[in-house]
Design goal:
Layout (H helix, E strand, L loop, with lengths): L20 E8 L6 E8 L16 E8 L8 E7 L8 E8 L11 E8 L9 E3 L2 E9 L6 H5 L14 E10 L8 E12 L2 E8 L5 H4 L2 H8 L6 H17 L3 H8 L7 E4 L16 H10 L27
Organism: Sinosporangium siamense
Pfam family, one: DUF4331
Protein name: DUF4331 domain-containing protein
């Protein structure tokens, strides 16, 4: 998987597909020079029979941005959804900077209020000054032969993700919205309130980390954590994983992990986006992660990007019927 089904036993966090953060993307806008696009895909309902594409009305979905390299959020966009009714749902977007960027609750000012979520083929685009936003059902851009991965890397030639949908939260804004310099770090988080306090039930940035590196009994702990603690909490265990799966030396494993620990997607916007410098919708992150985990011992799964990506906002293809 990418970040789909990131709870224990390849299940959604808290056994609720609505709370599942599936992917994070960051790339230059194909339409507007000097603008950055951030995408947070959520809800693994496509893998759970009977589940719906509605988002959890009691949760906070958050995109965090570090723009000074200290692995802590300097600004954040939080997305809070209303109760679904009559086949419709609304979302409010909050922007918080400084102290209002941290934590798990939605803080800051509402920059988009009660915008409709689009569950049909046409996205509902909201604008707040130069910022564009949509929350909409879209074709899931992730591609991989997951059946082959599960069968010991015996490739089937079939894209497991073909025909799957996801809910995309897409933001586009001028570069300086996210930081004055070219380098930013991005990650997503999903939080809920339990027993009077907010807890994180999912978080991540890089694709296919927790599936390969975290045993089931540490996945909830990982999802509840902060990137600033990742190196201290996970480096040693993940070095052991790479020694086992790819025959790495300790030094080589440490070097490989510098790209993904902490779990923040770094994006130098002075350079073209291509994973791991940001992530485009068509980047082959499955091959990238397999190459890393096995030290190049496993060949490509041969699956390519989806053909339904759009050259215009919101860039993800329309949803499948």
């Amino acid at each position: 998987m990418s970040h789909h089904l990131s709870g224990p036993d390849l299940r959604p966090p808290a056994d609720d597909p609505r709370l599942d953060l599936t992917d994070v993307f960051a790339f230059q806008s194909p339409e507007a020079a000097g603008a950055t696009v951030l995408v947070m895909n959520v809800n693994s309902f496509a893998f759970v029979p009977g589940a719906s594409p509605y988002l959890h009305p009691g949760a906070v979905y958050k995109l965090c941005v570090d723009n000074d390299g200290d692995d802590r959020p300097d600004l954040a966009f939080s997305f809070v959804f209303g109760e679904p009714a009559g086949g419709e749902q609304a979302v409010t977007v909050y922007y918080g900077a400084g102290e209002r960027a941290g934590g798990f609750a939605a803080m800051g000012e509402a920059v988009v209020a009660d915008a409709p979520v689009a569950f049909g083929p046409d996205p509902a685009v909201a604008e707040a000054g130069p910022l564009r936003f949509t929350a909409c059902l879209r074709s899931d851009p992730f591609f991989a032969d997951l059946e082959g991965i599960g069968d010991g890397f015996t490739w089937t030639g079939r894209d497991t993700m073909a025909g799957k949908n996801v809910v995309a939260l897409v933001l586009e804004a001028p570069d300086d919205t996210f930081g004055a310099g070219p380098e930013i770090g991005v990650w997503g988080r999903v939080s809920v309130k339990r027993d009077g306090r907010w807890i994180s039930v999912d978080r991540g940035a890089h694709p296919s980390l927790t599936a390969y590196f975290n045993p089931d009994d540490r996945k909830d702990e990982y999802n509840a954590g902060e990137p600033v603690d990742d190196v201290a909490n996970y480096r040693d265990a993940w070095i052991e994983v790479l020694k086992h799966t790819g025959g790495y030396t300790v030094a080589d494993a440490e070097h490989a992990l510098r790209t993904v620990l902490p779990d923040i997607l770094r994006f130098d916007r002075s350079k073209p986006a291509r994973y791991p410098n940001g992530r485009r919708l068509d980047d082959d992150v499955t091959d990238a992660r397999l190459h890393m985990v096995t030290n190049g011992r496993i060949p490509s799964d041969g699956i390519g990007p989806h053909s339904d990506l759009l050259p215009h906002f919101p860039y993800l293809g329309p949803p499948h019927a």
